[in-house]
Amino acid sequence: MLKNYNFCPQCAKPLNEEERGGQIRKVCPDKSCGFVYWNNPIPVVCAIVERDGHLILVQSIGWPKSWYALVTGFLERGEEPDEAVLREVKEETGLDAEIGSFVGMYKFYRRNQILMVYHVVAKEGEIVIDESELTGYKLVPIEEVQPWPAGTGIGLRDWLRTRGIERDFMEFPKS
User: Fold this and answer.
1) Predicted pLDDT of residue 109
2) Which domain holds residue 8?
3) CA atoms of 163 and 11, how far apart (whole Å)
């Protein structure tokens, strides 16, 4: 994510801050260029991966050893969200899956993302994680999984509720 967008990517002029669409945005001063940095949210798909009464949670590279979460990935150009979530599950776990349900959309302001959360059911096969993105995975019985109070964890909590399971949010571990 580009945090310090100072120059126009079209004509290289320094950007000014001006009001556009009810907010202050970075705008190219060259009226013939017309570039506006809208900073729109990035669409991300998220999978609650169910397999044999368990959920598959993954650990991303660089995360603390105790942190596990849902399979996630960016929506690619020309993809439908339901196609993208199945692609991400295959890429990150090596498993084919099918859509169980769409859980909902959630904001994740810290990363400027909009999360589209799906419940997917993984088919049989060996779990083989993508070691370029992940350091591990764990299988957690559905009755024991505990959601976290941000982003994908809110979607997980909402999905658990559809199964009649009420869970408080866990505290984020320190490491």
Assistant:
1) 87
2) 1-38
3) 53
